Each structure stands twice: as C-alpha cells, then as structure tokens.
Amino acid sequence: MELCAHMLEHGTGPFQADSRRLGYRWCDSVATMRLGRIASPDGVAFVSIEGEDGAETAREIAEHPFGTPTFTGRSWPLADTRLLAPILASKVICIGKNYAAHVAEMGGDEAHRSSTGSGEAPENPVIFIKPNTSIIGPQVPILRPKSSDRVDYEGELAIVIGRPCRDVKASAAKDVILGYTVGNDVTARDQQKADGQWTRGKGHDTFCPLGPWIETELDPSDLEIRTELDGEVKQRSRTSMLLHDVGEIVEWISAVMTLLPGDVILTGTPEGIGPMNAGQKVSVTIEGIGTLTNPVADRG
C-alpha cells in the first residue's frame, strides 16, 4: 500500500508536532522513489532523484515527500546541487546493543558496561533519543567537542517514518515507513561512560549524519552495512544480524511514543566501532541505498 498524505488545513507543513493537521488515505499503487533534499541555486527543496549513476537529475517535489508527491516542473542536474540531510525529523530514536557481535565487543569494554549496566544482549530493544539538532547531511563536518577525548563512528541503517502512528504491530510496520537511509550514530564514548546514560555522549550537534537519500522501496532484512575510516574498512556486517528487526523495533518504540512523519529510527551498529580524529573522513555504505561520507574536525 502507498501512503498518500494531504494537508487538511494550512499550517507550517508536515514537520510540526501537531499531527492532527495531516490527514491520510491509502492508495493501491506503490511508488518506488529515491527521495532527497537539496540546496540548489533556487533554494532548498525535497526532490526525486532519477537517472543513471553520475548523471542523476533532481526533480523538485511540491511541499513535502510524504504520500504521492506532486512535482513543480523544476529540476536540476544533481551534480549542480548540494545534498542535505534527506529529511526533517522531530526526533531521532536509536536502538542500542542490537548486533550480537557488537554486544560481545562491548562486553569487554568497561566504558560500555558502565553506561549500559551489563555486557549481555538485551531481551527487548534498548532505546534512547538524539536531538534533531544533531542531524547533518553528507559532507558536513562531524565536530569533535572540546569536552571529549574520544569520538566514535557507528554506522547504522536508518528507518524514516512516513505517517503519524502509535501502537503499530510488527507485521504492519511497513505501512508506516517512508523508506530507509544511512546513518552514523556518532558517540562521545568517554562521556557515555562518565554519565551512566547516553544523552550527552550521543546528543552533540553534528552527531547524527544522515543521507545521502531515502530509498522508499527496499527490503531491509539482509543488507550489507560497511563503515570505512580514511578508506580502511572498520565495520562490515549485514542487517540480517540484527537482534531485533525493523518490525520489532517499530512496534516497541511506537508502544512508547507517537511517531511523526519524518522521524528517524537508527537500528543499531555492528561490531568494529572506534575513534575518529580531526582530519579523517568517515563513510558508511549500505547495500541498496548508497554511501554517506563526512569529514571530521575539532570544534573551534
């Protein structure tokens, strides 16, 4: 089923907290799209990215990307634009300890045990939130705060929500998902250890790179995920190794809080996490989506 969203009244758009301003109906067709958000010579816009690799065109979407989009008629060569974070999220919900091998590597890490309580895999998803002010797009520098001596990469599959929802069953999760993108759950590891909870260590500005775009038609059950630091592979796994899959994650989170269009869920990182230093470049690649690359710098 394809989600079709229609504004019921004028307001500030679909990214406001009051989801009652949006009405939804279901259509029988399925639209397969690569959705992005760009800065062009004419301003910022949501777009459909079309065409062959290296020769893509960005077609401007009127208003927002939820449901069946309408187009303004304007387009640009993608190479003449700058990719931004592909979505505007009211919140970013994250899953911790969701790959067994990552749990095992952290089980021997005193810093991680101190902040999570144990080195064992959780029976239920462990959730935490990053502020939406942590979101950045491709090629935007990750800024290491002066207050941290260790800032780590964590490559992750990101879910993008497509409609307001609450109490969604795992079997119905696909009906509320707009698509998938690539995320990096950047973490100040020393602050995670020191605080005993994760808000400061995970929540700094620039600590949630997202991009390069959203794939709306993708089976997330068995995708390769790979993180490289200066071209050296540091993480390599598959989403089939998730302890809690996409459906379980959406069911668990939506039992706690209302999810709004554009909200992002980071599904957890595999083994191989490690520190990044100023001057390095980190890239996360997910099969079927693409590569998200960000340089690393020290905050001035």
UniProtKB/TrEMBL annotation:
<keyword id="KW-0479">Metal-binding</keyword>
<feature type="domain" description="Fumarylacetoacetase-like C-terminal">
    <location>
        <begin position="91"/>
        <end position="296"/>
    </location>
</feature>
<dbReference type="Pfam" id="PF10370">
    <property type="entry name" value="Rv2993c-like_N"/>
</dbReference>
<feature type="domain" description="Rv2993c-like N-terminal">
    <location>
        <begin position="33"/>
        <end position="86"/>
    </location>
</feature>
<protein>
    <submittedName>
        <fullName>2-keto-4-pentenoate hydratase/2-oxohepta-3-ene-1,7-dioic acid hydratase in catechol pathway</fullName>
    </submittedName>
</protein>
<dbReference type="InterPro" id="IPR011234">
    <property type="entry name" value="Fumarylacetoacetase-like_C"/>
</dbReference>
<dbReference type="GO" id="GO:0046872">
    <property type="term" value="F:metal ion binding"/>
</dbReference>
<dbReference type="Pfam" id="PF01557">
    <property type="entry name" value="FAA_hydrolase"/>
</dbReference>
<dbReference type="InterPro" id="IPR018833">
    <property type="entry name" value="Rv2993c-like_N"/>
</dbReference>
<dbReference type="InterPro" id="IPR036663">
    <property type="entry name" value="Fumarylacetoacetase_C_sf"/>
</dbReference>
<dbReference type="GO" id="GO:0018773">
    <property type="term" value="F:acetylpyruvate hydrolase activity"/>
</dbReference>
<dbReference type="GO" id="GO:0016853">
    <property type="term" value="F:isomerase activity"/>
</dbReference>
<dbReference type="GO" id="GO:0019752">
    <property type="term" value="P:carboxylic acid metabolic process"/>
</dbReference>
